Amino acid sequence: MHPNKTIPVKLIGPPFCRRYQRMRASVIEAAQRLDLTIELVEVGELAQLVQVNPLSLPRLYIGEALIASKNPPKAHIIESALASQR
After folding, report:
1. For labelling, which of 5, 11, 19, 22 has a CA lying 20 to 30 Å from the CA of 68?
2. Which residue(s) pair with 66 in the sheet?
3. Average pLDDT over the chain, rounded to whole?
């Protein structure tokens, strides 16, 4: 695949949530460690959040795959998911 491919990452949840902030920081750090380019889409507007079960927030998608729901994943899980999207 193309070495400069942009990997889509979607983060759904309220931005003020501590778990959301940890997920966001973890995915950015993992992308930097792996020297990958990500396109981070953050869904945090109330109108968009009401469409999702609030008990499953925050959610992290890498590509089309749901990587984490509720709790931030370990760094190696994020890195593995990012690497598989290369």
Report:
1. 5
2. 61
3. 92
- Check pLDDT > 70 for residue 37: yes
User: What is the CATH classification number for the domain harbouring 75?
Assistant: 3.40.30.10
Is it the case that residue 9 has pLDDT exceeding 70?
yes
Q: Total structural domains in the chain?
A: 1
Model's pTM, two decimal places? 0.90
Which residue range(s) make up the domain with 55?
6-84
Instruction: Say which residues have a Cβ less than 8 Å from residue 57's Cβ, sequence separation at least 6.
Output: 12, 13, 14, 17, 20, 49, 69, 70
Q: Which residue in the block uniquely carries the two structure tokens 């949840």?
A: 13
Q: Give the pLDDT band (50/70/90) at residue 5.
A: confident
